[in-house]
Amino acid sequence: MSADLHIVTGKGGTGKSTVAAALALALASSGRRVLLCEVEGRQGIARMFDVDPLPYAETRLATGLPGDDGVGGSVNALHVDAESALLEYFAMYYRLGKAGKALEKFGVLEFATTIAPGVRDVLLTGKVYEAVIRNARNKGAITYDAVVMDAPPTGRITQFLNVNGELAGLAKVGPIRSQADKVMELFRSDATRVHLVTLLEEMPVQETIDGIAELRAVGLPVGALIANRVGASALSPTDLERTRRGELDPIRLAAELDDVGLAAPGAVEALVALAGEHAARIGLQDSQRELLTETGLPYAELPLLGATDRPDAGAAVDLAGLYELAGHLVATGVSEVKGSLDATGGQA
């Protein structure tokens, strides 16, 4: 393989697309070329980078995070849609040319990819596969050092990546079966790792743990677990513990509020209530962090950007924020995580 493949998934709402974009910027350092792919048809990459909707073609998107040498590489983007991929497939294997366009006019492409979702997934992943295995012999084509796929959510990721299993009852032989076999060889190789993005909340963490088991059950390599939008504590560990035990001193709080000119009727009670909510939220983060680290997988955290400490705020991240998150990913070493499997199918 000429490139490493990073597949980024996560429960909906955890910011997996944001993490995928930040990871692409992190990987594109010191002159490295990275391709950021999306396969869900949402044009999320275009919105994050504030550019026009992406075509079905590799498009220069941004300069990567500068490396130790102060040089940034390049990030290209590719919006993969099943209909365009099927037209390309027909042209490549069956020489249909303009006849393929006629199929599109009559709705045959949409029909084919709707009744056979396994075929649709082979077409989507096949385009990413081609970018990964590309090398200097592909005349005129850009070769990449890494490919990042913004993949479907964890609830569908195993089905999406396990294209051989999905095609079992549809295609025993032929070009599309051969394509599926090659894609699966890549997905199960040392070149690939599947990163799971979560929030430090009960439902996303449980879905992440379930996703790890499902991926391993079909031999797909798990890379790192990335907790996104982690809020920092506004209280010291001592004050957090006192808050949890209900030991905050209202007289002291009233005096301190008065000292800074913030004394007001009901202010102390409101402040104590907010501190209690904050302590409970930090306690929940701590308990969910423990569950994730118990998996033994590489683990990283990304901070919540913005003024609020609520991880469910869901505020959009601008380009400056993406670069900031990319710096955190470099610091935590996520871009170096390999997802190879040992002989027993467990994580190496």
From TrEMBL:
Pfam families: ArsA_ATPase. InterPro entries: ArsA/GET3_ATPase-like (IPR025723), ATPase_ArsA/GET3 (IPR016300), P-loop_NTPase (IPR027417). It comes from Nocardioides yefusunii. Residues 7-185 form the ArsA/GET3 Anion-transporting ATPase-like domain. Gene3D superfamilies: P-loop containing nucleotide triphosphate hydrolases. This is ArsA-related P-loop ATPase. It comes from the Bacteria.
